[in-house]
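hi! just following up on the protien thing from before. the input was this:
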Amino acid sequence: MRGLTTAQADDIRRALHAAERRSGLRFGVFIGEPVGSRRHFAERLHAALGDEADDAVLVFVDLRGRALEIVTGERARRRLPDGACRLTAMSMATVFSVGDLVGGLLYGIAALGDQATARR
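and the predicted 3d structure came back as:
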């Protein structure tokens, strides 16, 4: 997790593991610049999870482009519909807009994990 302190990266990893334990889904975060279109790049990252992709949620943050994408696998989407992801993304973007990348990620990971758990 380039650009983050060790403590920040550890906090994000703990949040990812907590969301995975609660929901049974696989969660991942990628912070960086896309190669090509942002959505297509995020979808390729998600697909690279291979056999785990159907049960996975990927949060891609494009810092330079000031944008974010949430990609869900086929089975994960049943528990995290696009509307729920969209609302979480809007809340994350609000936190990002005040300069708090880590806070936005921690909020988003927890919210997605909670929503997926509630629909389990």
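Residues 6-114 form a domain with the Diaminopimelate Epimerase; Chain A, domain 1 fold (CATH 3.10.310.50).
The mean pLDDT is 95.
cheers
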